[in-house]
Each structure stands twice: as structure tokens, then as C-alpha cells.
Amino acid sequence: GLDWINTKAKDPVYGGYFGELDVNGEPVNREANKDVFDLASLGLAYGMYFNVTRDPAAEADLLAVRDLLFDKYVVPGMPYRVRDTLTYDLSTEVDTGGNGGDITNYLVPVTAMYLSNTALLTDPDRRAQFRNDIRLLTQALIERHKNPATSANPWWFWGRTLRFGNFNALQTDFGHNIKSYEMIYNADQMFPDHPWASLSTDRTTLLNRAWDDAASRWNQRLRNFQLGNVEPDSSWWMHDEADQTLAAMDLNDGFTNLDRLARSAQTWLDVYVDRDPAYPARETFFRVSRNPEDTDLGKSGFGKNMLHAHEHALIMYLHGRKLEGKPAKLYYAFPSSQALRAVAKPYWFDASGEFREVTGNLSVLPGHKVVEVSFTGIGDVPAEPSPPPADTTGPFTMAAVSPQPNPGGWNRDEVSVSFQAVDDLVGVKEIHVRVEDDTAAKRRVAYIDPGNTFTLPTFTANGEYHITYFSVDALGNSEKPQTLQVRLKLRGP
Questions:
Q1: Is 227:420 a contact under the CB 8 Å cutoff?
Q2: Is 375 exposed, middle or buried (0-12, 13-18, 19+ CB in 10 A)?
Q3: Mind listing the pLDDT tens digit of every residue in the chain (493 residues)?
Q4: What is the DSSP string of 192-216?
């Protein structure tokens, strides 16, 4: 898929990407404008493939999208401004509709390509750059589209910068408001100083105004600021975003939204998902209204399944697994050399614990392994200290093997291996352990365990086990990996 995009969608003359291709992969219009929305959607494609496979070519394409975004679309300033679109030759800005900057100019890039990939980038300088971009773009969203703090209703976001006060303006609805607060909340979790935590009160006001308690549904838009004067029955994607926002808050802050989220999730299944047995794909409707004349039973459209529906399913799955006290399992296609050590995250959330198992080869992707990662403690990672102390030294980890091997290095009884880490300043965040069997075709496994102590499951099978371990402190400083070997041949009769 990415090879097809790179072959067909890249403009070899003027740079950038064609926004729409025909069935043969030819540009529908070579002189069509090049929208920032489409560019960010390509970032989504490259980024999520990189997320799952660590393909260096996909990472390079993601970085190229980022660089094009800041080179051509982002206008420096305080706050930064993002252009709607550019002419085909990337030379001239076009204000779509002539009504100012679009709120999606910030929502789509940050959500689609930044939040889920920043921590995974290979180059530390690029990781820092992406974090800085998130901070700049999130602050710009707030300053350019949110009602001023001095206004009577500071909690509201306007869809177009030249349409403040116009409730019928494009993108001025509960969906884009909820999506704004969802993006701000998730971005806020990335920074130790939590720069936008003060907006929680405004977020609560917005969610309360958007929620239709009697119908267990979300409203479409405000008609004015008078209480209750709303257009009811939101489109499918707005319901997605509202569920995701409540789920994200629950994952990080405790299950404080369960009643509303349970009702909303049931409404999603009852109202939006097609349960006709003739259509087993269970596709979702665009909008199902209490007014039949306002119902749109379409199921397919540009961008519909690109992000929102899949993201809704993934985040609700992570929420449900944590609620049940069970690990959330996600699957990757990591290169063989990185199968046990490539950074894996449950989407853009953090997890305090991880068990990783290499389950097999990938015939369709030579040199890669199928890796099953079970995440626990999603949202429970302790926050970094802010402001951070001057500490660049990692912890130190001690390993204890019981019983000790004989002089030849072998054990004839079951073996237990435990670890204890110490840190002289900010404390130990987690211990990483990888276990590989040098002599048998057993699955390779890896663990990330929160805190400063960890004990491996007892070794009960014959084999020669190579163990690599290290610890990470609360600032992310890591010690140099250490190794030990457990050689086990159990006593015979």
C-alpha cells in the first residue's frame, strides 16, 4: 500500500502529494490544491505502518511529511498558524471558503501522525522535535480557535478563525469541540508540567452541554449559548470522539466516567452499527436521527474508516481490558533483531507493565517476527518530576539466581531469578528483562515491570537461557544492559 502511494501519489514535478487518484492511480487533477488534511492523512498511513513494523522507509516518509508540513504549511509566529491548503505548485496559500483557518488544520496532524509515533522515533533529536511540534500546535489550536478566557463562554471552540460567533460556520459543532479537548488532554499527558491541565473545567462544561442525558446520545451542535438550544443526534464520528475522550480520561485518571460511557457505548452499538444479518461486516451508519428526514444511512465515504472507527474500537478495547483487570494484547511485526526490544506502546497511552512474546515468523515480511505484547497498568505510569532535577545517570540493577549453579555453570533444580534496582535521585521507574533460550525453539519473551523489584517466572525446563536486564529511572535515564546465563538440566531419575 505504501509503495503504491509513493509511486502514484508523490508529485515528481512540484513536490508534495496529489490529493485524489483515479482507479488507475493517476491524479484526478494534477493542478488541484494540496490540502493539509490530506498531507496529515498520509502521515497517518506512514506513521501507523512504522508503528507496527519499525520499517525505516516508512519512518523516513513520516519524517518527510512532517518536514513538508512545517516547511510549507505552518506559518511561524506566536501562536503558529497552519494554512488550509496550497496551490498545486506549493507556492500560494488558499483559504478554503474564504473564512479563515480551519480547526482541523491542528486536530488532524497532531492526532493522526504525532501522538502515536513521537515516542517511537529512532533519532532522539527527532523525538524532541515532534514533542516541540505537539506543544506548538496544541497551544496554537487553543489561542486561535477557543473563545477568550474573558468571554462569557470560554469553553467553546469555533471551527473557522474568521467566523467567531457564527454557530453555523464550518466545523463549529460539538464534534470538533470534543475532538479539541480530546487532543489537548492526550497531548497534556506527554509533558511533565501538564501545560493545559487548567482546561479541565472548560472540558467538563463542554461535555455536559454536548450530552443528551435522556437519549444517552451526543448532540450535533449549539444553535446559541442558551441552555438546551441544540441540534440533537450527532453524526457517527462525533459519537466516536466523545466515547474516546471519556475513555482516555478514565484510563489516566481512574474510572470516573463509567456510567455515561457505558450508556454512550451501548447507544453506539444499538443506533450506529448495522446489525442486519445480511451485512455481517457490521458497518456503521453516518447518522441515525430521531427525525427520519435528517437520517443518513450511508456507510462509506472519504476518510470514514481511515481513522475514526478504527481508533474508536482500539481505545474502547484498551479501556475495557483495564476495566476488567486483564492485559490488553496488541500485535506487531517487528524486525527479528528488535523483536524483544523495540519500543511498543498501547496507541498513544503508556503502560506500567508489559509482557512480550515472539510467536512466529512472517512469511509475507521476511526478517520480521510476529510479536504479541500484553500491556498492563495502562495510564498508571508515574509522572516525571517537574521541573526535572539535573540527573543524567541511570539506575543500577542487581540480579540474584537461586540456587547458585555448580562450578560448571549448570543447575540441576528449578531456578528462580530476581532483580532489584536502585537509583540515587529520582527513583526507579521500571525494570526491563529479556529471556532467550539458546538451545531450544522456545518462544523468546521480554518483560517491563514497574517499580524497583521483579522476579522472573521459575525456570522449569531444560535449556540454556540468555537473560538481558536493565532499569530505567523516572526521568527516562537507562543503565547499560547487563547479562547473565541460566543453564538448566534437571536431575534424572
A1: no
A2: buried
A3: 899 999 999 999 999 999 999 999 999 999 999 999 999 999 999 999 999 999 999 999 999 999 999 999 999 998 999 999 999 999 999 999 999 999 999 999 999 999 999 999 999 999 999 999 999 999 999 999 999 999 999 999 999 999 999 999 999 999 999 999 999 999 999 999 999 999 999 999 999 999 999 999 999 999 999 999 999 999 999 999 999 999 999 999 999 999 999 999 999 999 999 888 888 878 889 999 988 888 998 888 777 666 888 899 999 999 999 999 999 999 999 999 999 999 999 999 999 999 999 999 998 999 999 999 999 999 999 888 888 888 889 999 999 999 999 999 999 999 999 999 999 889 999 999 999 986 666 789 999 999 999 999 999 999 999 999 999 999 989 999 999 999 999 987 5
A4: TT-TTGGGHHHHHHHHHHHEETTTT
Nearest to 239 by CA among 209, 218, 260, 263: 218
Spell out a b/e string for 252-277, using b for 16 or more CB atoms within 10 Å of the CB, else e. beeeebeebbeebbebbeebbebeee
Q: How far apart are CA 312 and CA 237, in angstroms?
A: 9
> The C-alpha cell of 461 is what?
525446563
State the residue for C-alpha cell 528483562.
433
CA distance 422 to 472: 10
3-state secondary structure of 440: coil
Residues in the chain: 493
CA angle 413, 419, 421 (to 5 degrees): 165
482-488 and 410-411 strand pairing: parallel
Tracing cell 507493565 back to the chain, one arrives at: 353
